[in-house]
Amino acid sequence: DGNTRDDGTECGFGGCLYNRPESRNDGFTNVAGRLGIEQDIGEGTGYITVGSGFRPPQATELYRLQRAQDVADLHSEELLSLEIGYRGGWWNAAAYAQKTKNFIFRDGAGFNVDDGKTKAWGIEAEAFRTWGSHTFAISGTYAEHKYDFDSNLAGGELIEKGNYVDTAPKWLANGRWMWNPNDWFDSELELNYLGKHYINASNTAEYEGHLVTNLRMRARVNDALAVHARIINLLDEQYADRADFTQFTAEGYRYFPAMPRQFYVGATFSF
Description:
With about 270 residues, the protein is an all-beta fold. The chain has one helix at about 60-65, and strands at about 20, 35-40, 45-55, 65, 75-85, 90-105, 110-130, 135-145, 150, 160, 170-180, 185-195, 195-200, 205, 210-220, 225-230, 240-245, 255, 260-270. Strand 5 (about 75-85) and strand 6 (about 90-105) form a beta hairpin.
C-alpha cells in the first residue's frame, strides 16, 4: 500500500506516479427503469419514453490513484432521458433529451472525481424505399452534447459550462444504395459520414470529419456456391478512426489513422 514501487522501495523525484490504496470493499446499488406510452397514428406508432440509467465506477477509476490521492470516493454515473418518436412503415424519427450527473473525470490535481454533469439533445431519423430492383436507405442524427459544469482538468485543460463534449460530433449519417437486378446478384454502395467535432474538452481543437465509401457485391454461381467481394474505403480517403488533442506534445494533434483502401474476396460453399 502507499506511494512506493511494487517492491516497497521509495521513488525519487517527488514520489511514484501512482498511489496504491489500502484493501477495502466497495459496493454500488442502483435502480434504473423505463416508462413508455405508445399510440397508433395512421400507419405507424408514436411513443413517449422516460428512462433512467447508470454506470458504476470502473476499477481503474477507483483504484488507479495519483500520488497524492488516497481514496477515490466515487458514485455511479446516473442518466435521466426523455424520448419522443414515431415508427412508420418506411420511416422512423425520434427526438431526445438527457442529463447525466456524477460524471467521472480526472481533475487538475490528477484526482479521480465525480462532480461532473452533462446535458444533451438530439434528433434521429431514417427512411428506406424500394423502386424495382433498387432500394435506397438513409439515416442520420443531429445532436448537441455539452458539459454542464466548470472545472480544471488534468494537464491544465479547462472545461467551461456550455462547452461541447469532445469526440461527440453533431452530425452522423449513413446512406445505402442496394441493387438486386436478378436472383443471383446483389450489391450495396454505402456512404458513412462523420461530422466536424471538437477533440478536447476546452473546445480549442477540431477534427474536420470525413466521408467514407464502401462497396459490397455477392453473386450466386449455383445452389451450392456463392462468391462475394467488398472494397472498404473505396475512394482511398485519408481519415482517422479516432483523433484527440494533447498539450504535452509540440504538435498537439494526435491521429489514429484508418486503413487505406482494402479489397476482400471470399466464397461460400454449401453441401
